[in-house]
């Protein structure tokens, strides 16, 4: 009883019981962090002292110079872990010790670059304080406004950027109300974009791009109503409804990033012709713009999902009003959200369209390409990352057009302006930039690059994505607007036509404008880009390359197969929209030969199962696997499987668990689970009946089991089970076996399992241990004795061991 109430003391407790114990002494103890995490009350009280807090903070950012380097690293690490150890008294002590916190933040007064370990520890402590002491930390930062400018000064340092992202991500908490507006007033976005200056280094551009993308990520909220609604999970529904639907489309920082002045500044850096690092600005700047477009596409999909959930709920509720009586109904997208979707990227598309000529020049005259470089294919002119990023940017704009035009919410996203209002909507901007794509021949240029660089699959994927989206947009819009006046029944219309029929006249007019613009762009691909002709020519060149010695299939042929399919689908729906020149070639001999021959052969080859089809009874006579067809029972599954795999495959012949048609695992399990020898006899009788019509080799193996003294080596350890079985018979049994020999062997085996023989074996079991060591091998009785001991597999292996022992003697 006494010992159950006694708690063992630790070294830490002993040190803390001393007067004036030094912090450094505790930091040298190995179990210090363990005691902290165990919430040692004495230790917590010690670390909550203001002087100790100050020392811990100093060890992180300003360790004493006289300390050894290893101790500096150790004390910095331990101090960081102690201060971020989820101990509330320590957090309270830090926030109460304002002077120590001010000294701690002087770390960001230093010049770049900051020491990475110290910056990481500094970041970790502040992130913990922002998580658990948010009101106090926000008040501290606002009381010292220079802190934010210091953060932005070192924004190229990843740990410092994490602090800024934390400030943005906590904006949804009630204690952080107004933090986004305050950051906007402090010009956070303009300062960050200014770091894309092409005179700065590549590393700065990379860090700033990552920071802006992260700001997008933490600023957007995409609440999705999952199965909580229909499963009756009221808490999940309430959580959905209480989420930041008001932040649909991002927050004020994202809106500022999409504004015209910021985008113009960013694109100006990207297209600077004289600055030394403008290529880096272009590569990383396009990454930010692409992310903005993708976030907008996510907003459209989110609105579609919300509307779908709302409509589905209404339909289900009409069927059974009591089913969702206690469920809060989902909320459809609001009119304000639809208005935001109609205006969100206007400025961005406008700026891109105004600079399209400069992007075209970059595609034709890249700044970063200085000539060919050595590759495994020889000297090759590289395509370059800058040109790839420009193509990706065009692909995202085209994807936006497809998603916008084919959205079931098109009539709501196309925000109808009030009379006298001149604000351009996304529809007008999409039409304008599409027309400029056609005017500047942007898609034909991209197609030329596609065929010029046959081994750049990144480029091929991007160009294929552009072509597929344009063709699909064209097919959808042509189908939707192709209403026949003769159709009176609305149910006879396609889904696209029904959607178009429900639109207002103004919305129909805008959709027709988009359709006409997309048809022109599609025609430029087929006519000026000569896509069908180039595909036919590429197939001809590929055939020549493949016929060469060690010839290779050209790298773009896989994408051309998919592009050809897209052309066929497009022509089947929209052939009447194109010029006679395009239709004449599509209906001509060259294209028809390619479609009916080369393309069809490729598609047939690609559609075949990997490894070929499994043979069936009708085709088995035409296939040779080293066996004769008459050797097999076509109704037997094992024989069918063996025929499908072949003598050189991983079939019955090669599987230790299924040697020559019967399952050793099944046999061993049966023997070990029953003492009845009749079961074993029945097993082999059944096996012989099932396999008698199969190949002779299986019976020879069983014969070997009954005449093991003739076997050379381990039965289960044959090195080559695919060897010629006639040779196997000759080696094992002294010659090929006739039918009478086989039947006699089976009779001997049945005799071995007769009741009299089993009784005789049981009587002799006790004398097995006293066997003469000189006796060669095991007799049949030994095998049966071991069957009784449930060790069939082990003793089969022992056959070879005894024979090896005899050979040595």
UniProtKB/TrEMBL annotation:
InterPro entries: SAPS
Record-level GO cellular component terms: cytosol; nucleus
Biased composition (Basic and acidic residues): 769-783
Residue segments, region Disordered: 676-698, 761-786
Keyword terms of this UniProt record: Cell cycle
Keyword Transmembrane helix: no
Entry superkingdom: Eukaryota
Keyword Cell inner membrane: no
Acidic residues composition bias: residue spans: 687-698
A GO MF label: protein phosphatase regulator activity
Family according to the record: Belongs to the SAPS family.
Stated name of the protein: SAPS-domain-containing protein
Native source species: Neocallimastix californiae
């Amino acid at each position: 009883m006494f010992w159950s109430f006694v708690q063992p003391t630790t070294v830490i407790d002993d040190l803390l019981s001393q007067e004036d114990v030094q912090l450094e002494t505790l930091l040298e103890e190995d179990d210090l962090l363990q005691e902290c995490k165990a919430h040692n009350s004495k230790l917590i009280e010690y670390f909550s002292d203001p002087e100790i807090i100050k020392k811990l903070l100093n060890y992180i950012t300003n360790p004493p110079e006289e300390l050894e380097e290893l101790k500096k690293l150790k004390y910095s690490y331990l101090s960081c872990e102690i201060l971020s150890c989820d101990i509330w008294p320590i957090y309270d002590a830090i926030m109460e010790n304002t002077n120590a916190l001010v000294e701690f933040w002087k770390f960001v007064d230093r010049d770049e670059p900051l020491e990475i370990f110290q910056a990481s520890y500094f970041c970790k402590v502040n992130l913990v304080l922002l998580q658990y002491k948010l009101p106090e930390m926000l008040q501290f930062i606002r009381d010292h406004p220079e802190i934010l400018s210091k953060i932005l000064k070192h924004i190229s340092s990843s740990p410092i950027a994490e602090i800024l992202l934390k400030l943005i991500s906590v904006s949804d908490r009630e204690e952080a109300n107004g933090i986004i507006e305050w950051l906007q007033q402090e010009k956070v976005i303009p300062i960050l974009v200014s770091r894309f200056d092409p005179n700065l280094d590549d590393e700065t551009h990379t860090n700033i791009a990552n920071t802006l993308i992260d700001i997008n990520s933490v600023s957007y909220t995409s609440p999705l109503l999952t199965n909580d609604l229909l499963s009756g999970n009221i808490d999940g529904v309430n959580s959905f409804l209480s989420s930041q639907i008001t932040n649909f489309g991002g927050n004020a920082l994202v809106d500022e990033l999409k504004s015209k002045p910021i985008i113009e500044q960013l694109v100006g850096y990207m297209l600077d012709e004289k600055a030394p690092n403008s290529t880096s600005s272009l590569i990383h700047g396009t990454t930010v713009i692409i992310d903005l477009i993708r976030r907008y596409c996510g907003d459209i999909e989110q609105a579609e999902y919300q509307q779908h959930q709302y409509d589905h709920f209404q339909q289900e509720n009409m069927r059974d009003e009591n089913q969702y009586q206690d469920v809060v109904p989902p909320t459809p997208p609001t009119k304000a959200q639809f208005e935001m979707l109609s205006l969100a990227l206007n400025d961005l598309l406008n700026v891109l369209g105004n600079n399209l000529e400069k992007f075209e020049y970059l595609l034709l005259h890249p700044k970063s390409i200085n000539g060919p470089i050595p590759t495994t294919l020889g000297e090759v002119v590289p395509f370059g990352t800058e040109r790839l990023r420009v193509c990706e940017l065009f692909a995202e704009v085209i994807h936006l057009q497809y998603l916008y035009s084919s959205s079931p919410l098109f009539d709501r996203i196309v925000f109808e302006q009030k009379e006298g209002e001149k604000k351009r909507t996304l529809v007008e901007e999409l039409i304008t930039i599409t027309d400029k794509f056609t005017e500047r021949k942007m898609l034909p240029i991209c197609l030329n690059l596609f065929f010029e660089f046959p081994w750049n699959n990144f480029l091929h994927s991007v160009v294929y994505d552009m072509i597929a989206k344009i063709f699909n947009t064209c097919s959808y819009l042509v189908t939707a607007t192709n209403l026949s006046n003769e159709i009176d029944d609305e149910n006879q219309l396609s889904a696209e036509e029904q959607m178009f029929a429900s639109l207002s006249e103004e919305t129909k007019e805008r959709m027709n404008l988009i359709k006409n613009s997309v048809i022109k762009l599609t025609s430029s691909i087929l006519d000026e880009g000569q896509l069908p002709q180039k595909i036919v020519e590429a197939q001809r060149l590929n055939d020549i390359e493949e016929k060469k010695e060690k010839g290779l299939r050209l790298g773009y042929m896989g994408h051309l197969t998919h592009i050809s399919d897209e052309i066929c689908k497009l022509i089947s729906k929209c052939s009447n929209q194109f010029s006679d020149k395009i239709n004449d070639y599509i209906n001509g001999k060259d294209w028809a030969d390619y479609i009916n021959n080369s393309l069809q052969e490729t598609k047939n080859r690609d559609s075949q199962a990997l490894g070929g089809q499994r043979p069936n009874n009708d085709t088995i006579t035409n296939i040779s696997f080293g066996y004769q067809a008459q050797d097999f029972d076509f109704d037997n599954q094992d024989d069918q499987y063996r025929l499908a795999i072949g003598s050189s495959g991983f079939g019955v012949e090669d599987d230790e668990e299924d040697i020559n048609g019967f399952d050793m695992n099944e046999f061993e399990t049966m023997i070990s689970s029953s003492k009845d020898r009749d079961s074993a006899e029945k097993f082999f009788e059944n096996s012989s009946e099932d396999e008698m019509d199969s190949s002779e080799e299986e019976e020879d193996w069983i014969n070997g089991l009954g005449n093991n003294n003739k076997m050379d080596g381990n039965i289960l350890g044959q090195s080559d089970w695919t060897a010629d079985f006639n040779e196997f018979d000759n080696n094992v049994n002294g010659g090929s076996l006739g039918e009478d020999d086989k039947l006699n062997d089976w009779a001997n085996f049945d005799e071995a399992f007769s009741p009299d023989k089993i009784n005789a074996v049981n009587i002799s079991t006790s004398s097995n241990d006293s066997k003469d060591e000189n006796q060669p091998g095991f007799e049949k009785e030994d095998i049966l004795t071991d069957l009784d001991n449930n060790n069939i597999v082990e003793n089969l292996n022992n056959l070879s061991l005894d024979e090896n022992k005899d050979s040595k003697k």
